Amino acid sequence: ETGVTQSPTHLIKTRGQQVTLRCSSQSGHNTVSWYQQALGQGPQFIFQYYREEENGRGNFPPRFSGLQFPNYSSELNVNALELDDSALYLCASSLHGANVLTFGAGSRLTVL
Amino acid sequence: GQQVMQIPQYQHVQEGEDFTTYCNSSTTLSNIQWYKQRPGGHPVFLIQLVKSGEVKKQKRLTFQFGEAKKNSSLHITATQTTDVGTYFCAEAYTGTASKLTFGTGTRLQVTL
């Protein structure tokens, strides 16, 4: 059974640029959630995808968007990067309706 | 929005000492989950509590859910250096989307 894998592990961008982060869900899981974890804080819910559609969103602006593919993998896109977007971005997979999540190792984004 | 507070923010103990972190909410929690995040790592699910007054044990870890379901605690007996990390409580909301609201976290440092 493979776990949740994310890529890239680290990346550096400059303000105004766009970034795409990728996530492969754990085998058997059909739901993917994304969280943002700023340094020294707890993870914050960005959104969740199920059946290739967003089915829940946290308090994040529209420049944060996502996709889910038929194989349940997912992408997180952030446009017009701001300095405050610097954080660890965590992907978590689960079965739909289940509330126990399996987190990936994260993608650490630094915006300069 | 609702915030789940944890105390203390940080604790430094000698190996062999006990450790407790507390999670408090102003509103009734439907459930509580506990996660451990090692330095540089990602959150790893430890346990979920759903019943009022519930107590669960995992080896040296004891988890409790308050009678009023507004607080929870994690107690570690005889800490080891492998216990180092940040411990988060989180409420799992299951509606259209399964979403975790994380607490502020308690960082544990253990020295010999």
Question: What key attributes describe this structure?
Answer:
heterodimer, A: 112 residues, mainly beta, 7-stranded mixed beta sheet, 4-stranded antiparallel beta sheet, 0% helix, 51% strand, B: 112 residues, globular
Structure summary:
The complex is a heterodimer of chains A (112) and B (112). Chain A is mainly beta and 112 residues long. Chain A has strands at residues 5-7, 10-13, 19-24, 31-37, 44-50, 53-57, 64-68, 74-78, 87-94, 102-103, 107-111.
Instruction: Estimate percent helicity of chain B.
Output: under 10%
The overall strand count of chain B is 11
Pick out the low-confidence regions of chain A: none
Which two chains touch over the largest interface? A-B, 30 and 25 residues
- What's the multimeric state? heterodimer
How would you sum up this structure, described in words?
The complex is a heterodimer of chains A (112) and B (112). Chain A has 112 residues and is mostly beta strands. Chain A has strands at residues 5-7, 10-13, 19-24, 31-37, 44-50, 53-57, 64-68, 74-78, 87-94, 102-103, 107-111. In chain A, strands 2, 4, 5, 6, 9, 10 and 11 form a 7-stranded mixed β-sheet that branches. The termini of chain A are far apart. Chain B is mostly beta strands and 112 residues long. In chain B, strand 9 (85-94) and strand 10 form a beta hairpin. The chains are: A mainly beta (112), B mainly beta (112). The interface between A and B is medium-sized, with 30 and 25 residues.
SSE blueprint and pairings:
The complex is a heterodimer of chains A (112) and B (112).
Chain A: E1 5-7, E2 10-13, E3 19-24, E4 31-37, E5 44-50, E6 53-57, E7 64-68, E8 74-78, E9 87-94, E10 102-103, E11 107-111
Parallel strand pairs in A: 2-11
Antiparallel strand pairs in A: 1-3, 3-8, 4-5, 4-9, 5-6, 7-8, 9-10, 9-11
Chain B: E1 5-7, E2 10-14, E3 19-24, E4 32-37, E5 44-49, E6 55-58, E7 61-65, E8 71-76, E9 85-94, E10 98-102, E11 106-111
Parallel strand pairs in B: 2-11
Antiparallel strand pairs in B: 1-3, 3-8, 4-5, 4-9, 6-7, 7-8, 9-10, 9-11
